[in-house]
Amino acid sequence: MLRWILGGREAQGSLEKSPVLCIGEEQPKNCFTELQVLKGHFDIVRFLVQIDDFRCASAGDDGLVLIWNIETGERLQELRGHSQQITAITTFVCRSDVTAHPSLITASSDRTLSLWDPDTANRIQTISDLQSSVKCLLVLERLSLWVSGGEELCVWNKDFQLQCHRQQHSDTGITALIELPKNCLAAAMDKEIVIHRLTLSTDSSVSVSEIHRLSEHQDQIRALISVNDGLFASGSHAGELILWDSISWTTQATMHILWEESQASTQTEIRLGAQKPSEMSIQHLSTNGKLLLAAVGSGLYVYNVVSRTVVAYRKAAHDSNVLHTTLLSDSEVMSCSEDGSVRMWEIQDLPLPAEPASAGFFGMWTFGRSSKQSGPQSKKVVDIPNLRTLELTGDLIGHSGAVQMFISFKEKGLVTCSTDHLLILWKNGDTQSRLRSLALFHKLEENGGL
Amino acid sequence: MTQSANAVSHASLTNNTMIGSPDVVAFTKEDEYGQTSPEPWDLPEEFSVPLHPLADSNPWAKTSYAKFTKDFILISEFSEQVGPQPLLTIPDEPKICGTFDLNYFSLRIMSVDYQASFVGHPPGSGYPRLSFVEDSRVVLGDSKEGAFAYVHHFTLYDLEARGFVRPFCMAYIAADEKKIMLQFQELSLRFSQASECLKAGNRRAFAKELQRKLQDLEYTHSVLQREEGLQREAGPQCVYSAHAVEKANELANVEKSIYEHRDLLKQICSYHRRPRRDPQAVACRRCMTECLSECEELLDKYAKLAEPVSHSEKGGKGEGGEGWLDDSRGEEEEDEDGVKRRPSYTPQLIKAKSAKCFDKRLKILPELCEGTFYEAAVELLKETERSFRGDLCYLHTRRLDKALRKNLRVVNFLFEEELDDNAEDESGTLRPFCAVNHSVDNHVHLNSPHIVLGPDTTQLHPSKPQDPLNVASETSTTRQSELGLGESQLESSPSDQTLETQESSEETKGSFSSDKSGLELAEKRESMASMISEGPDPDSDLTPEPDQNTDAGRESSSEDVETTAGEEDDGDHERDQTPVSLLEVASELDDCDSLNESKLLPPIDAACCMPQEHFLHEASAPDTMSSVQQNSHPKPSQILVVNQEPQALLPVQGEYTVGSPCSESPPTSLELPVGLLGDVASQTSVEEGSDCTLSASTGSDRAASPLGYGGTVTLRERKKAGQGALRFVRQYPFAMQALWCLLRGRTLVVIGSDEGRVRRLVLALALFVPSPGKCGERVQAWLSCPLTLTDLLRWKLIGLQRVGSPVGSSLLYSLSRYSRYISILDVDMKTLRCPPYSGRLLANIADHRTYIRRGSTFFLHIQSTLCRLAARAFLFTFTHHLHLPVSPVEGQEVVESRRRSFLQEQLGLDKGDSQVLLYLSQLITQQYLWPANRSSFSFDYTTSVLYKI
């Protein structure tokens, strides 16, 4: 239909057309019928953090942290102070006796860490003499401590006092941190997951010690997530997804997602061609405790951690790498990608259960050291009887650059941030119009008529 | 009195008899308004004229003999040297008054009320008094000239003028008496504002002039004193010589003059304190306080300055016994001191006045009032002239329209053009006009050194004219006096203050001039004496003298240059603006088209009833002929205005006055470039529309003029757009879908390779963009870069350039990417891609078999439809139960279904039409909640269809 407009893009389009599905303009299930553009950043916006149920903070390469009211789209505060890009941001709840006051911890490439009050935009604490920049932050609310990871692992208390630190001998440093039971931490460093234990002595001093290393991954670990109290998961650049036991640190399940096409497919040349590693790189993991959602290359992969089965997958969910995913419910999935779109999916039963495997295959249960080349040999055709499918129910197009991240505020809307320096607030038009009507009659009453 | 007024107006309407002398038609007091008329545009009883004149049924007959083609404003002066003379017309074009004799008319209007200028010694005071004359307002007619005028007399102060006052008047001259009578109140209001502005400036200028004069006098005084001292030094034997006596007289005269001027200064300062009887004379409070404080400061200064002089005089005498030698040195010191104290002005010796008053050059109006104030007043008058263009019927409907629209603020932002705020005050609110625009920081204007800015407003005088009691009592007295005076007042101004002050003027003037002559003599002597007897310290006195002279000269000349420059600017401005405004008027009068076309009326009559440019726009052959006829008239117009005051042959003066044989202004200013362009464009558009050919490419190479978007969209442009819209509707079968997209808020992108065509189409379609913004902010006529989301948020209608380069492909990519939010109208391929429309509402306006042929008709047709739509949207928006549950048990679904049934059954709207209404309602809601545009963008996910011709 758009061919007359597209003109010259024909050839390019056909190249990537076939695997990528297009939903078209009729999207009855897409409730985001209103958008608001939030401007304020001058560079790529990489992080979004929810502060409370109506505020969120955005941070990016311009070193700015902006606080937004997502109900009105107003910019509430501007946290200025970092001179370089922000590398990590997290909320930190300062609990006094009665109130819980949220504040923000930010880390930047300028080797500073700051604590902010999002209400007043005050920079409450700053640590500026770090040896290296911090790449990840983890708040241990139970202990009133927080941990920063980079080339070294540092443990801080809530007053920004360094409790202890541990030098890591690695080129890449710590890229991800999660909390494990029994005061343990898992830190992803290159191809290994290092388990640390925090020891709190009686005089409230804290020490950290490395107690274990998990070296099952063949490639760099890109994602690390704690699934529930008993499990955590990690995903690597080579498409290895490993499920670990949180206490015994043993492997519970290993999958090697290779995104192989089925033999039935006519497009054998694609299968035979050497796959780029990024096509199976696990960019992001998300979970709701029961399902584990992995962003693999430009595809999505849903795994049930309870039944240890694949629920659904789609190799070409996006035109380009998926950067962030969320499980909105047991059946609703949302993902954003470098192609600039956000897509909403529904996990549906296959319309024809007779041919579940026709959509494609993937190598799995590939224990041992399988390389990419060994992939085709090692893959097995697995017929999973209860395999379901990811159906595209809607997409949000607005950003002109890669959508880095999004946060859902449930019925209040969705915030997306992108490399095009913008944030977009997506809302349900019907709800908004109802709210506006309510406001209108409220104001009418206040004014005593027109 | 009422009867007589009626009688006169009857007479004027029936054209039977007009009295030869300036027939005062009626005059009015401002307090008679507001009480009698319930509607602002309604006539008070005494002005009501029969709707159908008895004999003559030709409505144009009474204006047919007017010698000018449209209304104008004339400012004239009663010059004490040459009598009444016209100074300025607004608009400032020689052709404006046609063959109308301005000199003659000035004589007329100035003779109605020669404001009794008066300076006298009232009993009990020894000094001349300034008369604070209120303005007077008269309506008069001249049957011979076919002119009627609202005449507003006012006086300005001038130290050099006889009696210190210069009478002026401003007149609004029209061929239609009724127009003036009906607009009397507003005319009066506006002219009062202008007059207040001029007078405010004049008071400042007068105070400055007084200040200089006082400095001169004091300086003269000091010189004289020194001479006297020298004489005394020379020898006691000549103390009683004739020369010495003369010197003493001179000194006494100077002293007297000082006291007189000081008193004048005091009087001008007390100006604001006196109760104003004129309720329309409201001045800007801050201006007033500033002026007041300034005056007070001056007063203080001269009260102080004067004392030391007299003191030193005494001291000098006292010291005389001790040592005369010190004297000259002391004088010198004081002189230096004096120079230090007031660096702005070097005092001069008062020269002997030339005896012939005709020799002196009277100040011209911009000098009398400070430049800023003068320009502001002229601007105000220009605005007045603009706002009174068109005939009475037009003004009336426009006012009705405005009044109605004022009540519809909630929805009129949707499709109506924006009301400009200036025009809104005209309903009679007394908003003081401020020349220096005090809402803005005006330090730039008022940086003369001796002015102290911004004292507290608390020192405002309590008895403001707004004081209702005061006004009431005054009105009652004036009524009485009116009743008493009756007919006699018909001839002169109703201002009883002038009457009361008229009597003793002769005598006092005489006495004062004798004073002056004495002073002159003394000065002559003095200057001679200074030449001779400046023995002791020649350097100190002789050398500064020429210096001072040149200084003063330089100063004044620089002033002249300043004002001239200002004037020139003003002129340029005017030249720039006029064509545009002319166009405006023409378009406003577009409704008269039918009249024009019917050609039943003799051309001359038609010419009189509407501005002549009109004929150029909508011209058919006979009409152009008539306009040519009109244009061939103005040969004598150049000589009508006295350009220069007789004796004052300063070159700069020509700039101020009207109709100076300025070579660059063509005799028919209609042919100014911009106007011409506009005319041609409109002409062609009319032609294109009327011959109904569907060739869209005619004139496509002629890029549409850069009208609109960026400035406010005038009615004319909108009507022109109506023509374009009509063509679009007739040309494209899918016009309905395109219009629907616009009305439901789906951004329409008009893509094409020909800029002119795209721009024209965008301009035409802009009529259908709801809430296009004050300056059409929601419309982008021509864009040549890829679309972004922000563009979509900002604009609802976009003209896009189709290009073949790589830029073009990214542009097309952006189009396809955002295709869900936009509809695309391809001008080159004649296709439209948008969701299908199901509804009946738009069939009415987008019928491509419409019988409407004229753009303006179509425009009105669109307007009425859109207006109905807006009304429905209003109803829908503010009906509570359509949006919110009535009871707490009701769910959202109930409300939803109720809304749907309302839209479908009560309003009879289909789904597509409902979407339009919902969008309009959403706009109304947003406007009501957050007038400062909060941009959110709503859309829906529906499939688009490609329409082809």
What does this structure look like?
- The complex is a heterodimer of chains A (450) and B (949).
- Chain A has one domain: 7 Propeller (Methylamine Dehydrogenase, Chain H).
- Chain A has 5 helices and 32 strands.
- By secondary structure, chain A is mostly beta strands.
- Chain A has a 4-stranded antiparallel β-sheet.
- Chain B is an alpha+beta fold and 949 residues long.
- The model of chain B is unreliable at 1-39, 46-50, 52-56, 114-122, 306-343, 421-431 and 439-711 (pLDDT under 50).
- Chain B has a domain at 563-654.
- The A-B interface holds A 1-2, 4-9, 24-28, 30, 33-37, 39, 72-73, 394, 397-400, 422, 424, 427, 429, 432-434, 436-441, 443-444, 450 and B 410, 788-790, 793, 809, 812-820, 824, 829, 831, 833, 877-878, 880, 883-884, 892, 918, 922, 925-926, 928-929, 934-944, 946.
- Chain B: Residues 558-571 have a biased composition (Acidic residues).
Give keywords.
heterodimer; A: 450 residues; mainly beta; Methylamine Dehydrogenase, Chain H; four-stranded antiparallel sheet; 5 helices; 32 strands; globular; disordered N terminus; B: 949 residues; alpha+beta; six-stranded antiparallel sheet; six-stranded mixed sheet; 50% helix; elongated; WD40_rpt (chain A); WD40_repeat_CS (chain A)
Number of domain modules of chain A: 1
| Helical segment count of chain A | 5
Unreliable stretches covering 5 or more consecutive residues of chain A: 1-18, 261-274, 353-383
Computed over alpha carbons, the radius of gyration of chain A is 23 Å
Count every beta strand of chain A, where a strand is a DSSP E run of 2 or more residues: 32
Please give the radius of gyration of chain B in angstroms.
35 Å
Instruction: Give the helix tally of chain B.
Output: 30
CATH class of chain A: Mainly Beta
Tally of DSSP β-strands of chain B: 13
Family (chain B): Belongs to the SMCR8 family.
Biased composition (Basic and acidic residues) (chain B): 309-320, 517-527
Keywords (chain B): Autophagy, Cytoplasm, Guanine-nucleotide releasing factor
Subcellular location (chain B): Cytoplasm
